[in-house]
Amino acid sequence: MIDSPEPRLLSRAVAPDEPETPVRLPVPAGLGRLLVLAAVFVCAACGLVYELELVALASYLFGDSVTQASVVLSVMVSAMGAGSLLAKRLRCRAAVAFGLVEAVLALVGGCSAIALYASFVWFGGSHAVLVGFSLVIGVLIGAEVPLLMTLIQRVRRQDAGGAVADLFAADYIGALAGGLAFPFLLLPLLGQLSGALLTGAVNALAGGALVLWLFGRDLTARGRWVLITANGAVLAVLAAGTFLVPSFERAARQAVYGEDVRVAIRTDYQEVVLTGGPGGAGGGAPLSLFLDGRLRFSGRDACRYHEALVHPAMAGPRARVLVLGGGDGLALREVLRYPDVRSVTVLAPDPGLLRLGRSDPGLSRLNGRSLADPRVTTVTGDVFGRLRTAAAAAGPYDVIVSDLSDPGITASTKLYSREFYGLAERALAPGGRLAVHAGAPDTHPRSYWTVDASLRAAGLRTSPYAVGGRRSAYAAGPDRSAAAEHPPRTWGFVLAAREPERPRLAPDAPVPLTLTPGTLRSAERTAEELRVPGARASTLTHPRH
Question: What average pLDDT is seen over the chain?
Answer without folding.
Answer: 87
